[in-house]
Amino acid sequence: MTRPCLPPLATITPPAFRAPAGACDSHAHVFGPYARFPLADDRSYTPAEHPAEAFIAHLDELGLTRGVLVTASASGTDNSVVIDALRQYPTRLRAIAVAAADVSDAQLDAWHDAGVRGMRFNLYQIGGHAVYRNGVGIDALEALASRLKARGWHAQIWIHAPDLVELGPRLKALGLPLVIDHMGRMATSRGVGDAGFQALFALLAEGVAWTKISGADRLQPAGSPYREVDPFVAALLAANRDHIVWGSDWPHINYFDPAQMPDDGELFNLLARWIPDEADRHRVLVANPARLYDFG
Q: In angstroms, rounded to a whole number, what is the distance separating the alpha carbons of residues 265 and 17?
């Protein structure tokens, strides 16, 4: 058995600005109901049930139109809960799936028709050890790359930015758009001069990669107001603001201390500080995700 995760906050800080029409939360997860969509037996954490309708309520509370669901590691390679959500809300949602290299073309095509536009690969390690179980790694990515490219999909990479120094060239050689999760999931204490963060900066500047300015709470565990994250976001925007999207990471899995649970309203309101220009916020919240995830 794994430890149960805390649920997200029931009451959040109200949005400080009005999101533009078509605004997108580009990183979230759904779980359950478990009677229909059970978790993987071998998993690193156990979230409460957070079904598709709860995510739609989260979008509505923040004034957002669209969302992107990512199959979480606790689900393994079972994407059924995400696919079901796409079928319930086809105009509002897109998704990123997880699959082994032997997934069939027929399955990929069915997922595409449902609204899947990429696959996630778990390269996230600290000190050479995987942080979460159930990840599909770089060997599967290399085996699947041509099939992703044929469908116009991207590879979403969950990686610790310092590992991009070694793995960046290998990822770049795939010839696929890359989306780096959570700004490289690197502690702010390493600084923007860290070689791995500079490798991420270079991939964005070259137009090879995108990133999600999400997970401020993961980068700076000390909590709100997340000032230490500001220079990282500023650097990424300077590298290529056309390749940046924002995500909440709702429902904030793997939190066990109520004092550390982030406030979705505060996370959203960081955009007013990070991107004060409304045209640039429209780019990050609307135009960029519309292109990346193929919203109509």
A: 10
